[in-house]
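To whoever picks this up:

The parser on our side crashed when reading a file containing two proteins. I've narrowed it down to the boundary between the first structure block and the second sequence. Both blocks are reproduced below exactly, byte for byte. First block:
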Amino acid sequence: MAVLLFSQLKTIGQKDSSLKTHHELILPLVARSIETSWSFGVVSALTFHVKSEKAPVRTSNMQALVLYTLRHQFVAAINGSIYFPGEKFILNQQLSYSYFPDEFWGLGKTEPFSNKEHYSYKQYYIYLHPQYSVGNNMFVGLLYEYQRLFDVNYIAGGLFDQQNIVGRDGYHVSGLGLSFTYDTRNNAFAPDKGSLMQFYFDHFAPIFGSSYEYTNYVLDMRKFIRVYKKQILALQAYGFFNVGEVPLRSLASIGGATSMRGYYDGRYRDKNKVVFQAEYRVPLFWRFGAVAFGDFGNVGGELSDINFQYLKYTYGGGLRFALNQAEKLNLRIDYGIGSGSSHGFYLQLAEAF
């Protein structure tokens, strides 16, 4: 179950030499999810348009979150996307610190539900992705990612030691990469037409200050189709692949708030994964809407392991409430059901994809 308590809703609008009207929402919240149990915190969401004399610029956004849970987890994060004049330049970024008691089922796609161990970690995380337009909705970009994992506590002699999990004693990873993006979506939060095709790789190596050497490859393809009036079919195919010595928090995982909703985030882990998901979005009345979604996918240590054997799937539905109708910024609450006994609620800002 998830509940949002609005003790303050602050909206600000102003104009200056660099920004058009911008809006800020401050949302104290109480929520519940599979990974966190009951959680308490504050979310601040800023949306704005960088002033441009040329073509319209999509909505830029910044979000700040501080969250504490009954499982004694703590997360502080800042993330967002800034679209500069003419969309010649885009900057995506994420900065976070977390202390997170978590669950681990081992590697692979067949680990039983009873095979679970508790562990905890602290992590600093930095992700920077500047992109430059090369015309015709295409962008090339540079990526930088940094993780510092420390104070990892796990059961000695358990799954972490038995499976020789890389990075179980803490580590630094630092990597650089390149991206190519084709993006015709008409909105940053809830597009109702257009598509996205993005490919990037990120190479982590000691020369960049990394404890381990490996390369991460990601392919993300999305399509948004207007089916009837304002009803939208959203589709996504997502592949996440690793080559090399991959540490714990860089492994592919199934579950969470943005794909395979209904599984605990990390219920299944391995070097690689492929996920397909579809969501049908329907407006109801006033600021309310509803969705139905379905996902399937798998993980594997090798590409040949990602097949229909032990295929994972989830399905579910949810409600939407438009916090900012002009910018299409929605509060979403989803309930997902996975194969076996997996299920859970999710409360987030913006759509899953």
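<<boundary where parser fails>>
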Amino acid sequence: MSHSNISIFVPHKGCPNDCSFCNQRAISGQMTSATPKDVEDAVETAIKYKVDPKNTEIAFFGGSFTAIKREDMLSLLTAAKHFLDIYKFKGIRISTRPDCINEDILSILKNYGVTAIELGAQSMNDDVLLANHRGHTADDVRDASKLIKEYGFELGLQMMTGLYKSDFQKDEQTALEIIEIKPDTVRIYPTVVLKNTHLGYLQEMGEYIAPTAEDSASFCAKLLQMFEKENIKVIKLGLHSSETVESDMIGGAYHPAFRELCEGEIYLTKILEKLSAKDKNQQYVIYVNKKVLSKAKGQQKRNEKALKNQGFHCIIKGKENLEEFQIEVTETI
């Protein structure tokens, strides 16, 4: 059974920096920070809808959880641990900054039942981190990751692509350095330019243009395969769909089904590899797992159209007992 999160947002609370890309109200759709009552309401609602506790985490996202006032952090942890003990949830997941982790904090988190910690690394290039006002270095990411693993927590790392002063070559190097750290999970966020951010200002001044969703999808498809090859699970790819993000977005790589765009790119690449030595005068049937047929065809059948534009006459069909991304090609009679 897949695991899920009961998500409680602490937007921008505790963050010591205003990062170039950050508008947490737009990202989370929430202005105010969480309270213990919010934790109670979220958990009780999840229980009402028959969530499976042993496969569910109580998750604090949005801001830098370990940088908020200690009393606020402890009150939220106390509320979460109460339900952890009652319903036997899988654990508590938090997200924070690499420079807001130390042994004292990790001991507290361990005592309150935190099981997974995600760090907003964003880039492993110090020049990119500096240009985007991150306020930490790549070494901070390495050091915090090492400590988190030593304390026995599940480690997640978050990276962004297309940031100011970065490019896809630097972003690929970030992915390679994250792979060296060996986190359990990764989230990949292509840059979305929001109103009332420094990136928004840079875009208005003509100093920065974020990659589009299409360009980012092609690149992130490559990253997805890199991480999965190393058995690092990509648990999020692209910002979650939100009316607030859509209304505040002024550029960049937002798409409500961004991961599906990336997976469609992978299917197109693999199909073209299979067809590379084939005769374009022949017609072919491309078989994929029937559960992923829509991904293989691409959104609005873009992959079928791309194959046609390259001179291949193909029909993509679903088939039982094929693995994800497994492709079979047969000639039509």
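After patching the parser it read the second block fine. The chain has two domains: 4-256, 270-331. The radius of gyration is 22 Å.
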